[in-house]
Amino acid sequence: MNRAFSRRDFLKASVAAGVAIKVTFLAPAAEARLIETPPRPGPDWLNNAGKPKYRLDAIAKVTGEKTFSRDYRARDLEGWPKEQSHAFLLHATRTDLAFAGIDLKVLGEDLKPDRMVLHEDLAADGVEIPVPGFYGDVFLVPKGQTARLLGQPVALLIYHDFARYDAAKRLVRFDDSVVRYGEKAASTTPGPYASARYVRIDGGDPAAEDRYSSLKDTVIRAGFKGDEPQWPVPGDGDAMARGMAAAAEIEREIATAGDDVLVLKRHFFSQSTDASAMEADNGNVWYDPTSGILHAMIATQSPYEVAEVAAHMVSKSKYPLKEVDLRVGYTVGYGTKDHAIFPFYCVLAGLYGNGHPVRLANDRYEQFQMGLKRHAFWMDNVLVVDRKTGQFRAMTGVYKNDGGGRENFSASVGAVGATAAQGIYYLPKSDFSAAAVASRAVDAGSTRGYGTLQTMSATEMMVDEVAELIGIDVMDLRLKNVLRSGMKNQQGAVPAGAMRHEEIIRRARAHPLWRDRQKKKEAFDAANPGKKYGVGYGHVHKDYGTGAEAALATIEFDAKGRLKLVHVAHEIGTGATTSQAIMVADILGVVPADTEYGKVRWPQMPLETTDQPYTMSQDEENQRMRNPRWTPSFTSPMSASNSVYYLGHATREAAQALIDLAIWPAAQALWSRGIGGGQIAPEAVRRRDLRLAGGMVNAAGLQPLTFAEVAAEAHRQGLVTGVTVHTFNRWQWAEAEFDLGTLGQHCFAIDALSVRYGDGAPADRKALMTLDGWQFVDRKSVDYPQVQRNNAGVTYYTPMATLAEIVVDTATGDVSLLSHHSIMDCGRQIVPELVSGQIQGGLAMGIGHALKEFLPLYEDGPGDGTWNWNRYELPMAKDVAVWSQTYEILPPLSETDTPKGMAEVVMIAVVPAIANAVAHAIGKRFYSLPITSDNILEALS
C-alpha cells in the first residue's frame, strides 16, 4: 500500500508546456567502455536444465565493468559535452534561527563558485518545488525564514572545474561560519501529515460477515489538534461515525475486562535508521539552452516519476523546455531512491550550469544529512487474551511515526504499519490507528520494511510475553491464534492464496534450536559463568505491492525463433532482470536472446492515465473506463517487493498470450499437415496439453517440434509474433477482452494490448501496425477491481519466521548471535540463488536494527552533517553469524504456484526473534530498539 502521489497536476503542466518525456537506459559507448543495462551474460550462463548459473550482470560485476549511475561523467555519455562541472549544497544545521545568508570569505577569491544559487533565484526564475507537500514547499531556505528541517539546503554552489570545487568543499565542511543566521524566528516545519484508523469487529466467527471493517465500510480519517488526531464522534451516522462507535465498543470491553482475561498494555519504540546503501544519491544534468533539452543521468528507483516531475518543475520557469532525456544506470537504495527529492536538486544544478553538464553527488556525510531515513515509531499496544484458552479477543494499537520536515511517503508508511500490526494472528476485534507527524528531523521515506518492521516486531514481542504471563507454550499460543486460509485480515479482506503459518510454526517447533533450547541453556549457563544463553522466535508476514501496481512488457520472436524481451523493470540489485528472463524461459521453453530493461517510452501503448489510483471515486473510474485507452496508472517504480510478482505478471501474461495467439495455432498447423488432418486428427489434443521446454514444443504424444519451427510457421501465416501488454493490480488483477478480428476474441489478465504480426501477414493486417510497427488493440471490455478494494489495505503476503540463538555477556551487556534459522514461503522460486541472497542481506539489516543501528532524531542527529559510518554502527560479518545461518523454503503447493515478493519480509522476523532470545537468556524484556549493551547492563543492575 505504498501510496503514490497523484501526478495529475504536473502532467497537466507538462503537457501544457509541450514537454516530451524520454527515459532511456544507457546504450553502449565504446570510448568509455559503457555496458548495456543489463550487461550481456556469457554464453555459458545457463546450465543444461535451462537455469542460470549466474546473474545477467555477474560477469560485469567480477570484471569491474558493472557501473552505477555514480560512475558516469559527461564524457562517458553519448552526445554530451566533454567538460564536466560540479556542484555541492550548503545546509542549515539550525531550525530555530532565521537564515541570514552565506559568508564565503573562508574560500578567498580563488575558490569562490562560478555560480551560487539561492531561493530567491529560483523564485525569480519561476522554478517550482515539484508536488508541493510531498516534497515540501521550497528547495532552498528563503532568507529571513527558518529551515523546515535540519540539514535543509540553503544554497547550491557550482564550479566549472573539479580542482576548485574539491578544495572549496573541503574548506567549508564543518565550518559553522559559512551559513549565517539571524534572530530567533517562527518555525516553518509543516504540521502533521495524515492519520488513518482501521477498526474491525467480526460477525461472531471468522467466516461470518463483519459487523464493521475498513473493506466493508471505510478507513477512518481525522484532522489534528497539535500532533493528536481528532477522530470523528461515534454514532450511527456515516461510515466513519459507525466505525468510531465500533472502536468505542472495543474500548469499553477492554475497560471492563474481568479476571478471566489478561489485558496486556505495552509501549514500544523503534528508532530512526539509515538504509546505508553503498551508492549515495547522485545525478549529472545537462540543460542545453540551444535545444531546450534537459539531459539527465540520475540514480533512481522511479525513473518515470523523475522525468515527469522534472518537466513540471521547469515548465513554468524562464528555461525553455522541449524534452527531458533521462538516462538511468544501475543503482541500489532499499526504497530510499524511490520518489526522493535529491534528483530534483540535480535538475537545479543543471539548469544553473550555464550550458555545462553539472554533477551533484552526495558524499557519505551528505548522504546521512539528506538521505531518506527509516521512520521512528512510537507504539502503544493493548492485547486482550482469554487466560484459560489463550484465545485472542481483541487488540488495539496507537501508532505515531515521525516523518521529519518533508512529507514524502510518511502518511502511507504509518498506514501500512497500522494495517500490518495484527501480524500473523486472527483478531475478532481490532482497532489500529496511525498518525504521521512532522518534525525538524531529516525526512523519512519508503525505506525497506515500510512501517511493518516496527509494528509487527512489537506484536511478536507481546505474544511471547503473553505466553509467559498466562503460562502457555508460546508455540501453542501461536497455533491457537494463527491466521488461517480464508480468514480475514484486520481490514476485513481475505488474503490471497493459502496461509501456511501453521506449517511454519510446526517446522520451527521441531527444529533442534527450539526443541532443545532449555536443555542447552542449562548446560551452557552452567559451563559459562557470566554468560547467558537464549533462543527466540519471531514470525511475521509482509505484504508486497502498493494497491496500484502497473507494468508493461513486450515479448516477440523472429522467424528463426530468436526471442526478445523488453520490460519496464530495471536492476537495483535484486536480480529482477535475471528473473524476468527466466520467467520467459519457464513458459516458452526458450531464454530471450535479446533483452532490454528499464524501458519507459512505449509508443505502441498510447495509454491515457490520470494516475489517481488511490483517490479516484468509483463513479469517476466508471466514467474513465468508457475510454478503451484509459488506465489508472501507467507504470510502477522498483519498490514494494514488486518485481517477481507484479512486474513478473506482465512477463507471464505476455508469454501466455504468445502461446494462445501464435505458438498453439502454429503448432496445430504443423501437426495437421498431411492427409486427413495429419497426426493430430486421431488425438483429442487441447491447448492445456501443450508443453514448452528446452526449446521444444510438445503435446499429448505428438511429434516434438523445435521452437524455431513453430516460430517460422507463425511468421509464414502472419500470426501474432509479438505482444506488448499493460497490467494493473488493485489487490486483484484487472482483466480485459480483446477482439483480434479473424484471429478471434481473447481475454487476458491485462488491461491493454498491442500486437505485431508475422512476416507473412496480409497487407490489410500489416496496415494496422501504425504505432512504431505495432497495432494497439482497443479492448472490448475491461474489469477493474473496485476502488473500494484499496480499503483492503493488502491481500498479498509472504511469511517468514526466524529462530535466533544468542549469548548475553552479563559483564559487558554484549549480545552475540551464535546462529539463526529461517523458514519462508515465497511460492515458486524463479531463481533460488536470488532468494538466498535476499535472505542473507535482509537478515543482516534486521540484526543491525535489533542490536546496533540508531540515529538521534534532532540536533545531535544526522541533520548536523557530522555523521558517517565512524559514528553509525552497522553489523559486520562476525555480528550476523555469517557461517552458521541456515534457512528453508516451503516447497510450492503445485507447479502452478506463483512467486511471492519477498525482498522486505526477510529482514523483519529476526528483530523480535532476537528480542525474545534476550528475554529467554536473562529474563528481562525490552520494548525499545535497538537493544544495546547499556540497556542490558541497566536492566541487570
- Total strand segments: 35
Which stretches of 5+ consecutive residues score pLDDT under 50? 1-17, 25-36
> Quick check: average pLDDT?
93
- For the largest sheet, list the strands in their spatial order: 1-14-13-12-15-2-5-4
Total number of domains: 3
Q: Compute the gyration radius: what is it?
A: 29 Å
Shape: globular
Number of helices: 22
CATH class placement of the largest domain: Alpha Beta
Strand residues, percent: 15-25%
Euclidean distance between termini CA atoms: 44 Å
- CATH architecture annotation name of the largest domain: 2-Layer Sandwich
Largest sheet: 8 strands, mixed
Helix and strand composition category: alpha+beta
CATH superfamily of the largest domain: Aldehyde oxidase/xanthine dehydrogenase, molybdopterin binding domain
